[in-house]
Batch of 2 targets.
Target 1
Amino acid sequence: MIKIIIPIAPITKKNSQQILINKRTGRRFIAPSQQYKHYAKECSYYIKPLKEPIDYEVNVKCIYYMPSRRKTDLTNLMEATHDVLVDCGILKDDNYKIIKSVDGSRVLYDRNNPRTEIYIERVE
């Protein structure tokens, strides 16, 4: 089992997305917010990449400790975490062939120590 703790307040990827225009084609596209980009960069400081990214079936359990009791979308938090794990070289991809389940994931409250705890276990 791999355990990763990211000691910063978790954020979702979908809040405050930016609609930008491709200069070459003139088409619009949605880009992540600057806040998410900063969050992903900060996370990379706490995640040590593996020699080979995981390419087998795993359960990714995420426990989010939020700094406030505000309503939060667990699915969006998990999407951001999975993308960070792929970007940092922990998972090869975040599709259904690798992430088989997210059993045990939940959102809790800890005003003094917001963080994300990630547990990655091989599924047999």
Note: Helices lie at 34-46, 74-87.
Target 2
Amino acid sequence: MPSQLAYSILFVSELEASIAFYRDVIGLPFKFASPSYAEFATQGAKFGLYARGDLPQLIGRAAPAGEVPWPQGEVAFFVDDPDAEHDRLRRAGAHVLAPPTDRPWGERTLHVADPDGNVVELTRPTQTED
């Protein structure tokens, strides 16, 4: 039975634009890139990006034709201060979806959109887990 998340990968339309967003705007340490895949240095589970156009090489078939609904997913990263990140990301030109907000599940979250419209959450716990 699975017990630990190994990695999370977002499928993106323009790999270079997404690398720039996660490296330069979000501030993740860039690790490496190949023609279809990029990875960032995160603690714990790996975080990567994969070129959507190269999906047939990965899974043996193409994505269905037609418009893809927005957003397709969310990725969340722990930060020390969502409010400070909000100010920094606005200055960097990020599309802020929701400003820092205290959530009933015990986190303060900030949501921005990446170049493909995926939701990026920056979060910190507001209460300790029991």
Note: The helical segments are 15-26, 55-59, 82-91.
